[in-house]
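Example 4.3 (complexes with small molecules)
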Amino acid sequence: MIFSNRKKQPSGEVDLTRLPRHIAVIMDGNGRWAAKRALPRGAGHAAGAETFRRVATYCKDLGIDYLTAYAFSTENWKRPAQEVDGILNLLDKYLRESIESMERDHIRMRFLGDCSALPEKLRAFIARTDEISARYTGFQANICVNYGGRDEIVRAANLAAAAGEVTKENLEAHLWSAGIPDPDLIIRPSGELRLSNFLLWQSAYTELYFTDTLWPDFGPKEMELAILDYQRRNRRFGEIS
Ligand code: FPP
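Answer. The structure with farnesyl diphosphate bound is encoded below.
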């Protein structure tokens, strides 16, 4: 299941009155995690999907409103067909399993990206999770699939132009993320220091957190460290204090 029913006591150290409202994660390092264990890359993605489940449960229990994960980029289609199929099958499996926990825990799930290119079976699950999500108002997991930040901005600009004037507000209303607050914190594990076409518009004032830990090893403890680091930051949004 994507979300377990385990209720984890939040650490006394995290200031629950100053939580990031929206955390986004780049699930990087699955391949290296598998290589270190002489396992196929698919085993790394499977472990990564399991990590997402644990981290999502932790965020939900802590009181985070939105968790967004970069699961499959527009560029990931260039990977070997076997790996692409493996990632899409994992998504399919986790969606199937998450429907029960969404209904039980009133969780919302939304997909950001061009889902029209996805296999029919996966699109049917996405339609079902959309239907369930419409009933609830609590924690929301966003999964970026066939997602690219530049494509998202170009698409939104064209839609805004077709509807009239292109303004920041009109463009935002046509992003895949329309209605979701900008991420307060973006986490990239695995030692890479870049955004890789992730949430380019939305990250204008986002705090960035990098760690060498590979995504499959990134558990609730690491998430707590990232939140504590975030809470030490001074967010100015271009102002002086
Ligand atoms: C990047 O690591 C990871 C991906 C391209 C795929 C991530 C997808 C999943 C974990 C599938 C399931 C998702 C959910 C939300 C259930 P990499 O392969 O680039 O790692 P490397 O840099 O070490 O090779």
